[in-house]
Amino acid sequence: MDWGIKNRLSQLIQEDGHCFFLPIDHGYFQGPTRCLEEPGKTIKPLLKFVDALFVTRGVLRSCVDAGCSKPIILRISGGTSMTGNDLANEGITTSIEEIIRLNAAAVGVSVFVGSDYEHQTLLNLAKVVNECEDCGIPVMAVTAVGKEIEKREARYLALSCRIAAELGARVVKTYWCEKDFDKVVKGCPVPVVMAGGPKCKSELEVLEFVYDGIEKGAIGINLGRNVWQDANPVAMAQALRAIVHEKATVKKAHELFNNVKNKKAACA
Questions:
Q1: 110 Cβ partners below 8 Å, 6+ apart?
Q2: Is residue 155 a contact partner of residue 123, using CB atoms and an 8 Å limit?
């Protein structure tokens, strides 16, 4: 592995081998998502607790302070919306020159295995890997499922993750699944980070699946809606960081969440 890629990965994955990425790229297909109408305000109190931001170039330029020292993972695939026929019909939206100009530590590309656009999105990934490797920039593959949430089971996720790694992704972002998630991780020869997916019903549910996924081999998380759509996003960010970086149990993390929440309420 070349020095440039090693250096950029070291910015993203901390010395303990774990990471907490905060995605705020949802607007690229959802528009002004709830609690992300003003991304700059949303992320301001959360930045100190996360290791990197996953963001589009438009929001990066307009909403993220250029003095921000957090590494940037640049979302570079898109071209679809919730109102279209198929979210899987993505192309590459950002040039390698733009990636370098924006000083990205890594880029993120979605692949839709099993969709009508499987071939197209996998070749998107391969093309990006070819270009980014030449410039020392790691690529994170995102194993997306579009609107077909039922695909989030181990056999499908393991297939998607392995293909992404085989095509050259340095990191793979995928969904946690309740059964056999360890097999998903073991079958992927590059680090796996967990996506959050739709908003969970409770804070405890989020902490439980994150803890389980870390225990089963994921190196970290890439959670957005389950952080900034929570009623207490700072408390949630701190609790998740405790699991990811401090080896906290679900009980300890939940106690921390409640302590931070109650302290905020007392100061209000």
A1: 77, 90, 121, 141, 142, 143, 144
A2: no
Look at strands 77-78 and 91-92 and give their pairing.
antiparallel
Checking phi first, is residue 197 left (phi over 0); if not, alpha (psi -120 to 50) or beta?
left
Torsion sign, CA atoms 167, 219, 9, 224: positive
Q: Tens of pLDDT along the chain (268 residues)? A: 799 999 999 999 999 999 999 999 999 999 999 999 999 999 999 999 999 999 999 999 999 999 999 999 999 999 999 898 899 999 999 999 999 999 999 999 999 999 999 999 999 999 999 999 999 999 999 999 865 555 679 999 999 999 999 999 999 999 999 999 999 999 999 999 999 877 788 999 999 999 999 999 999 999 999 999 999 999 999 999 999 999 999 999 999 999 999 987 777 6
Tokens of 192: 């796996």
SS3 for 119? Answer: helix
Locate 139 and state its tokens. Answer: 């690529």
For residue 199, what are its two tokens? 């908003």
Fold of the domain built from segment(s) 3-230: TIM Barrel (3.20.20)
**What are the domain boundaries of the chain?**
3-230
How many Cβ atoms from other residues are within 10 Å of residue 32's Cβ? Answer: 11
Spatial separation of the C-alpha atoms in residues 19 and 99, rounded to whole Å: 22
Q: Give the separation between CA 214 and CA 233, rounded to whole angstroms.
A: 21
183 part of the active site: no
Q: Of the residues 151, 173, 216, 261, which is catalytic?
A: 173
Tell me the whole-structure pTM to 2 decimals.
0.95
